[in-house]
Amino acid sequence: MLAAAICLPVPLRRSFDYRVDAALAGRLRRGCRVRVPFGRRTLVGVVVGAPRELPEGADELRDIEAVLDDEPPIPAELLALCEWAADYYLHPLGEVLAAALPAALRRGAMPATAQTEGYALTAAGRAALETLPPRHRAQRSLLQALSTAPRSRADLVATAAVLRRALDAGWIEAADAPAATPASGTPTPTPEQAAALDRLAAGDAGFAVHLLEGVTGSGKTELYLRRIEAALAEGRQALLLAPEISLTPQLDARLRERFGDGVHRFHSTLTDRAREQVWLRARDGRARIVVGTRSAVWLPFARLGLIVVDEEHDTSYKQQDGFRYSARDVAILRAQRLDVPVLLGTATPSLESLHNARSGRYRHIRLQRRVHDTPPPQVRVLDVRGLPLDHGLSPPLLQAVDRHLDQGGQALLFLNRRGYAPVLLCHACGWNAPCTHCDAHLTLHRGRNRLICHHCGAQQAVPRHCPSCSATSLIAVGAGTERIEQALANRFPQYRVARFDSDRITSHEALERQLADIRDGRTQILVGTQILAKGHDFPGLSLVGIVSADQALYGTDFRAVERMGQLVTQVAGRAGRAGQPGEVWLQTHEPEHPLLQTLARDGYGALCDALLAERRDTGLPPYAHLALLRAEAREAGQALRFLQLVRPCFEAPDVTVYEPLPSGMERRAGLARAQLLLQSASRAALHRSLGAAVARLQQMPEARRLRWSVDVDPYDL
Ligand code: ADP
Ligand code: ZN
Ligand code: ZN
């Protein structure tokens, strides 16, 4: 009996054998989709093991109902990448593949065709025409047909397979693909950029990770464009990953300005159909450049030649639910498997990347100067202890705002907390607007007149009376961006204030409008969250105020200070104008805190040195590897008991298995959560422990009564 291994979209870490008859077996290739019965359902699965002979007496297997593809829609390289990721992240392959396939293909629909107008011969194709032996008749006649001019698909007699092979070889390209030569306006590199380009080009031969570290405005993006151009010139495709495309219109605009319409966007707010079109164009090689968020790392490129990860430190590269992967790390692995370079760009490298660069695993390239030669900003720590705070703003900071505006500058106030106030408190009885589903307070949103949970999304109207004691003495405690915006609008009525957070910036257009108002000087004061740290250019900005540098210092998350340092540095990097340094003020109640002092006095690099020393002493990444087993259940205590039960499964040489603990915020969206932390200096040892334990967990009846998942390289603990 012949059987094939099929991967199904179910949360199980295994494939399933189905019977195939000999006639079908010849058609079944790895990566083809099939329709199979599963329980009482019919599912679309993917062939992961070619048909093989099963021994006599093997279990009775069910039949494959239908084979959906003759050609695998998933290229072999991508399927292998998904298998690697499923193994590395201990996640079911079916769910990994779901991340890599367009929705319609997952449902079993036939792949749509990317509307192809026609094809043109490339320089490589012209060369191939000279050298290709006559026995390659089909290829030769295709190249011959295109040798005088591009032709439409309908005019060509070549089969799809012949076209695919010629595309894969880089001999032909879709006729509507962009010219590889930049349209216009390529600036001459500065000497520093030129030196960096030389080093980047030196690594051209194959896989290398380049950490391109340069302050905002030092010309990193310009280098990305140059490297992309070089990849295109070789007939390859380029992928540029960005944290959030809709928040970085400038990046997109610059790519288009340089490369025209050949730039394809890929992100989660596109429709399924639009995503599928980019997917198909990546696969047939017509999408020469894709700029995308996290999930674009799974696109089926035909001949990828370069991956750029912009803002490599950004936390949004890590998916925080379901399949918890890091797109940055997958990008590096994919580049390694493809033997192509990857370029990590940032002004504030993650400690992991910095460590890899210092230990020689990555090539470290630095840009120290800003292109337009703006000196770095002056950073000062502002001790607000004992000062009267006006909605969170101290008199010295307000005076600084006044002075900068008066001199024609612009001021930016940064606070990583949206809404009006994080707590609504009853002064009479102490009621404090808890969320009924989470261990958290509801945030007061004045504009919408709602109390909203930032963890589960639950909302309710703002009560006039305390729901507990009926008193009317409800007070807003603490400040969010909405409150700072109002305070500044009241204080400086002659100037315009713009707020940047996800409540206000709901579309690309809204963002563009607000940015234009700032560029044109109609808006003088900016208030916002991390959206303001995302690579926008504010040429008139002279003052940055960090409303609270303390949030991170009290946090329990081991990455909190690293992240604060990144945000402060990123926001501070926006300050300064044409030759004049900007000013950055950090409000704090802990002015003596050594890490804060280090950041203010010596900058992000020095902060990293201090943090790396701490991480080394405490055995945290990048000096050790971590994994979490997370569990959640409706019933209080169930998740924790489960973790206590399974803890021994993880015991292994060279792996520390900690006591299970309730998660930081134990209850979220009605579920009680707990986690088990594993730590090891050896990635291999950690992986062995996880692999063995997960295999056992899958057999345990207790494990079916709650939700559990593995988080490899967790971002927060
Ligand atoms: P980064 O990505 O490091 O913030 P950019 O590449 O965006 O830096 O460069 C900052 C600004 O300088 C941009 O407006 C860019 O167009 C401009 N720029 C970059 N390189 C050059 C150059 N070699 N000559 C002139 N202008 C440049
Ligand atoms: Zn009350
Ligand atoms: Zn909630």
Compose a concise summary of this entry.
By secondary structure, the protein is of the alpha/beta class. Helices cover 32% and strands 23% of the residues. It contains 22 helices and 31 strands.
Q: What is the topology?
A:
Layout (H helix, E strand, L loop, with lengths): L1 E6 L8 E5 L1 H4 L7 E6 L2 E13 L12 E2 L8 H13 L4 H8 L2 H4 L11 E4 L1 H9 L5 H10 L4 E2 L7 H9 L3 E3 L16 H12 L5 E7 L5 H14 L3 E5 L7 H11 L3 E4 L5 H12 L5 E4 L11 E7 L16 H12 L2 E6 L4 H8 L4 E5 L10 E6 L11 H12 L3 E5 L8 E4 L16 E3 L4 E3 L6 E3 L12 E4 L3 H11 L5 E4 L7 H12 L5 E4 L12 E6 L4 H4 L5 H13 L10 E6 L5 H9 L1 H15 L6 E9 L4 H9 L9 E2 L3 E8 L2 E10 L2 H15 L9 E6 L5
Helix pairs in contact: 2-3, 6-7, 8-9, 18-20, 19-20
One zinc ion (ZN) binds next to loops.
Cofactor: Zn(2+)
Enzyme class: isomerase
Keywords: ATP-binding, DNA replication, DNA-binding, Helicase, Hydrolase, Isomerase, Metal-binding, Nucleotide-binding, Primosome, Zinc
